[in-house]
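hi! just following up on the protien thing from before. the input was this:
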Amino acid sequence: MTWPGQRVWRPPVGLVAVLPRDYYNPRDPHARRPTVVVRVLPADRACLVVTRTSDTMVAHSKDIWHDKDPELLCDRQGWWQPRRVHRVDFGAYDDEDTKPHVIMSGDLLDRILAAYQEFS
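and the predicted 3d structure came back as:
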């Protein structure tokens, strides 16, 4: 609960976390996926995230290839899938199961955001 006058922590665009599926899509066959915040909805205390898959057979034309990158919590090669956008409440990032989280920046984030904009 947030007390009056207390600021609510907002995940920034580019925040990467491996979220349990219950936060983004309870029907996902995988228990956890890397996600990146592509839009923040402060009035709703929620954000929109794009998911990543390591299944290299599931590439689509607008997916963003991403090599193995432990610094971004990605232990395998995979694809960021900007057509797979999910709403996540800010509170998901306070859960112990979603830590650590890191910030993505640079060209990779720019490409993901541009592809997300095409689908939105």
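The helical segments are 21-24, 107-119.
The first helix runs from residue 21 to 24.
cheers
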